[in-house]
Amino acid sequence: MTSELITGIGELTTQDDDHARLTDAAVVLEAGRIAWIGPASRAPAADRRTDVAGRAVLPGWVDTHTHVVFAGDRSAEFEARMAGQRYAAGGIHATVRATRAATDAELTATASTLRREAQAQGTTFLEAKTGYGLDLETETRSARVAAEVADVVTFLGAHVVPPDADRRDYLDLVTGPMLTAVRPYVDFVDAFCERGAFDVDESREVLLAGRAAGLGLRLHGNQLGFGGAVALAVELGCASVDHCNYLTPADVEALASSSTVATLLPACDLSTREPFAPARALLDAGASIALATNCNPGTSYTTSMPFCVATAVLQMGLTVAEAVWAATRGAARAVGREHGPDAVGSLRVGGRADLQVLAAPSVAHLAYRPGVALTAAVWRQGIRVSG
Ligand SMILES: N=CN[C@@H](CCC(=O)O)C(=O)O
Ligand SMILES: [Zn+2]
Which of 63, 54, 60, 57 is nearest to 28 (CA)? Predict the structure, then answer.
């Protein structure tokens, strides 16, 4: 088995409990895993040697919220929004029409292109949701495509009620035959708990059906207004509640005293002109947060985790270290992959060799030089996949 020594690391962010940041460090990769971490001067020999000349190295980004299985374009809707129109969940139907009309090959091609685009910017772990099919056939096709392209898949049949469907019948479909059909491909169940989509009781029904089928739980909530989604996510012990733009002090408190991660989506907030989620208040209260792109054609058409990290620092009041944590280890927590043999989002001996080199001496440059392409190289499971 070939081993690779990455040496000359100016700043190594491990996100490991033992040694968070090292200077003048080295890492050895072998068989897709980290075999050794320590000072460059004590590094063992390896078959191959890569000197990164004082650059910063950190775990690959963990993007836990994307909707990359879709067809079509909604740039006109975006432009109208930038001219003052408010975002409403109804735009989803345009993507549903295009997605239903697309072939599996077309859906796979788009999702794979976006995955590669993300990877070139340092993303080594990607979640993808269904939710633009909204009928049994297209949700199943979407789940299959997502499972081919992504590391973890979420069933979002409860995105909105399709226009041609009766509400009760659709919920029965989502919690019954549709759930059964997608089950082989998915890991989590989700619902869009928002005005214009599903209410708290309907969302609870969907999540409980998913739980009974053995799925993990996550929830879209409090994106467009105050409501009961966060309380529901905490009540059910969801791994994550995503968006969280409108939180009451009680919501913040509930998250802080739970294991549910608040996944914040700053690129979406900019694209919908919604207020940013109260990241500072969440952290100060003791809640766990993650950052994700929410890559989708309606509200957040970006695959760039560096953009999300920079925005979180520059506009949401996070320190650089907090934002990088939220996009790596915090994100791993949001998909239940913080610990164990399949853990991601941190660099530790025995763990997955998912890491990136920045064209910069420090992670601070991610926000210090916003908008600049700083990803120099990426390794995923020990294989150099970019740079
Ligand atoms: N909020 C719900 N769903 C997606 C966007 C859906 C769309 O407008 O296409 C989101 O996470 O923002
Ligand atoms: Zn979403």
Answer: 57
